[in-house]
Model the fold of this input.
Amino acid sequence: MNARGNAFRPHGFTIVLGPADRLSLLRENQQIGGTLLLHPSSNSKLRPTAVALLACTLVSSLACAKRTTDPPLISRVAAETREVVDEAGRKVTLPVRIERIVSLAPNLTEIVYAVGAGDRLVGNTDYCDYPPAAKQVAKIGDTMHPSVERIIALKPQVVLVSTASQLEVFTKQLDQQRIAVYVTNPRSLEEIFRSVTVFGEMFGNAKQAAQVAADLRRRSDAVATALVRVTPVRVFYQVAGEPLYTIGREAYLTDLVRRAGGVSVTADVPDAFPRYSDEAAFSARPEAIILPTGGSMGTANTTVAGPLRDSPAVRNNRVYKINDDHLSRPGPRLVDGLEALAHALHPEAFRPK
Done:
């Protein structure tokens, strides 16, 4: 292990804390649909009930897959079907009118509802809990281990997944059933806005989706305007404390920290969600620390990791706990996370004049 420790190299990310807090990867670093799963060991301080820290990318982060094409393009290939190029560069043939959708990621479920297609969602994962209506949709298992049999029984016309690596488990079986699979992989806030627009076009709700994207962009622009004269704050984003994980170069959250008036001290670390060594953390000397917690994470990740406890951030009481669902799900509520981050890092910029 080098000074910064071993790092993931997945399309998405999964952290499993096993015996002796060693890292285990599930199915070759399989993407988890905007959700970072933390399975605590007996030695971990994470509570067993805190199973999901959401990304995106989380499950859904996520985040390292290379683009092989420009943004998705939709073209008519027959009177009843159309061809879509998804974010993994795959050509996908879909019905012109999609009536039955299955989502394998919480962030994708949120986008489906945001563009007005929630009534066509016939299946989603155990972690899909927002908006409240999503809880009533038939569950197909967890994000890492969806039940192919349940998916097929629901007769979807399209299955939405967060990155190409999530395809590997079941794509052959779905292909045999002629069920289309559409891959997303947003790595920045702007790419999430684009995903909203594309979903609207796919589901025949282009006008509503364009309005949603415009409203989200307007709020993002308002943050940018408020922060135009601030000095960026050096930020450490603690994904998990024991062992210590953070955000790296490929994480969409690194972009979000920048937009909130910060600069991640780990912005140049390879990969999306690398494990970070104690020595490197001690040397980082961040001015602020972000703890995503309180949403799906419950009370987990509420304590600053040991190597950071003598940092300027802790000494100056600049440790901020922000709802992890607003940060770890790369969907519409990520703008809520942006606003919360910006207000935490630069409260002076939002005081009434």
DSSP finds nine helices and 15 strands in the chain.
